[in-house]
Specification:
Length: 478
């Protein structure tokens, strides 16, 4: 069926990247002329609904004989920066062969979808991989007449899903707490750090529900499998971005495991990974606070801010939050300097270039006393920083820190944390870079930045970090 481009252009009026989407659809129509296009209402897992473009038809698969496999693809309004939602569309005499890439409801899961990244990923490329995977494991089989009768109920359910008429909405009104008080956190990435964040959030009872988005290929392994085996309460594991819908906090822990040779290549690989993640999670949770724990945290927080188009207060990096908490603990409990500890912070760039600072000025009768107090404070701070050098930053430590930050955000505690925030305008920094600074956190993210004591050496250090980070960001391809 020929693509009615002008009609489609009108229908896609609310799509963020309409022209890019139409160009892709033209290629699909040219390659697979049997596909038909329409606009229908899709119902997501949380019961929310949206009018989305979808197309359906058959793809040719050779599995001994030749088969035409019916499929239906839903195109999100953030396409091509978010992958489509894919289903089989079996007829009444077809049964679904549940396997590696297909679930019992006919939802299709492929590595290509999990690793979706514009402009490398395309609908044509997706369909080609779909055909290749179906040729390894046929997703449908022919039913006998009696089996076909038993299949009708399942097909009815599948039709409701693909037509956007699931009963999730009615269930949510009675069974779920969707009254605005339901605190949901999504953790993206099922590595050690991601699992540590999930366990810490669950242990501290920070949220009503935690979703762990496992974007790795293949079957569940290691910690993810263990979470399923031991059934941690209120934790859902999913490979589907729609499971993150309406999260109030989205924690990003993923890091690329590519074969990059240089430091710049490693970061670019992370940026490419985020291009397939941030638009999707931003689409499903448009009012969320993004909490970035991926490395390097300053750069990846900047990347998340740019890709999400969220306001700066709702994109935060974990930054030096763990370092600051440890710094204050050492000052209070090991060095018995409790008065200093309450105003002490570690700020700047995560790693070797972090620097201790203070949020109140030293009060003294004269300049000599002020200098003596400042010198004494500096000696104590240096001792504390030396002690901290021997403390590793393990995944579970970061997990506890992330849980603490999420707790302050979800419960609107207005507590001060040293987190990566947009530093432009602070300490004469004129570039768009994120650095750790003491900030008051609440439900909308950063409520306000706490003023630091003026210290030329600290400002010089922050400006140096900002300059090097900005130079690095300029070399990245967003």
């Amino acid at each position: 069926m020929a693509l009615a481009e002008e009609a489609l252009r009108r229908q896609l009026g609310k799509y963020k990247f309409r022209d890019l989407t139409i160009e892709e659809l033209k290629n699909v129509s040219k390659t697979y002329p049997n596909f038909t296009f329409s606009m229908n209402t899709y119902t997501f897992k949380d019961g929310s609904q949206k009018d989305l473009l979808n197309f359906s038809g058959t793809v040719p698969v050779k599995y001994g004989n030749s088969y035409n496999i019916p499929i239906r693809l839903w195109i999100l309004d953030s396409h091509p920066f978010a992958p489509p939602i894919c289903f089989l569309k079996p007829t009444a005499n077809m049964g679904i062969a549940v396997g590696k890439h297909v679930d019992a409801q006919g939802r299709i899961y492929l590595p290509y979808l999990q690793n979706w990244s514009h402009p490398k990923s395309t609908l044509i490329g997706l369909i080609k991989e779909m055909i290749a995977k179906f040729e390894e494991e046929l997703p449908l089989y022919s039913l006998s007449s009696s089996d076909a009768a038993r299949q009708s109920e399942l097909l009815s359910y599948i039709a409701k899903i693909t037509e956007g008429e699931t009963d999730m909405k009615s269930r949510s009104k009675t069974g779920d707490r969707n009254d605005g008080c339901f605190n949901k956190i999504t953790v993206v990435g099922a590595g050690d750090l991601g699992i540590a964040c999930v366990l810490a959030v669950a242990a501290k009872d920070v949220a009503d529900k935690v979703v762990l988005l496992d974007l790795s290929e293949g079957a569940a392994k290691g910690g993810t499998m263990d979470l399923e085996i031991f059934a941690v309460p209120n934790v859902e594991i999913s490979k589907d971005f729609s499971a993150s819908a309406d999260s109030k906090v989205v924690v990003l822990t993923v890091n690329s495991l590519g074969n990059a040779q240089t430091y710049l290549d490693v970061i670019q690989s992370n940026v490419d990974l985020f291009r397939g993640i941030i638009p999707a999670v931003s689409h499903y949770s448009q009012n969320a606070v993004l909490l970035v724990a991926s490395h390097p945290v300053e750069v990846m927080t900047f990347v998340s801010w740019k890709l999400s188009s969220f306001p700066k207060n709702r994109v935060i990096g974990v930054g030096a939050s763990l370092d600051s908490e440890r710094f204050q603990y050492v000052l209070t409990n090991l060095l018995k300097a409790e008065v200093l500890a309450k105003d002490a912070w570690v700020i700047g760039e995560q790693g070797e270039d972090k620097v201790p600072s203070w949020t109140s000025c030293t009060v003294a009768a004269n300049q000599r006393e002020a200098m003596a107090a400042r010198d004494s404070r500096e000696k104590v701070a240096n001792r504390a920083m030396e002690i901290l050098k021997g403390k590793g930053q393990r995944s579970w430590s970061f997990g506890l820190s992330v849980a603490d930050l999420a707790d302050s955000i979800l419960k609107d505690k207005r507590k001060v944390h040293s987190v990566s925030t947009l530093a432009k305008g602070c300490c004469n920094i004129n570039s768009e870079v994120f650095l750790s600074l003491p900030c008051v956190l609440g439900t909308s993210g950063v409520i306000e930045m706490v003023s630091l004591e003026e210290d030329p050496l600290v400002q010089e250090k922050l400006q140096s970090s900002a300059g090097s980070i900005h130079d690095l960001q300029q070399q990245l391809k967003l």
